[in-house]
Amino acid sequence: MRAVKVLVVVMSVLLVAGLVFLVYGLATGLRLGPRGFEPIALDLPADCRLADVSVTGDRLLLRLDGPRGEGCQKALLVGLRDGRVIGEVSLSATP
CB-side exposure of 20: number of CA atoms within 13 Å? Predict the structure, then answer.
């Protein structure tokens, strides 16, 4: 009988602790899913176009295409956590 009483007390404590965490999460607006970022604007020359997009983990790879002389031949790596451009690879033709 004593074991049943101990079990009831332990389960009651766990139930109250769970309710406290639930109320805390709702009150603070705790988000468990992935967080977004603010919209970003990328400055591209007028004749450039988006040729390909791929996502790997928390990074977005944008491949641009267009006239070679306009600086369109490049790839941009954007971080999805903060929305900033991590790197840029420019391609140029060699004579």
Answer: 6
CA distances from 9 to 57, 67, 80 (A): 44, 74, 46
Mean confidence (pLDDT) of the chain? 83
What does the alpha-carbon distance between residue 52 and residue 88 come to, in Å, rounded to a whole number? 15
pTM here? 0.55
Q: Decide if 68 contacts 86 (C-beta within 8 A).
A: no
C-alpha span between 9 and 2 (Å, rounded): 11
CA distance 65 to 59: 20
DSSP labels, 38-89? --------TT-EEEEEEEETTEEEEEEES-GGGT--EEEEEETTT--EEEEE
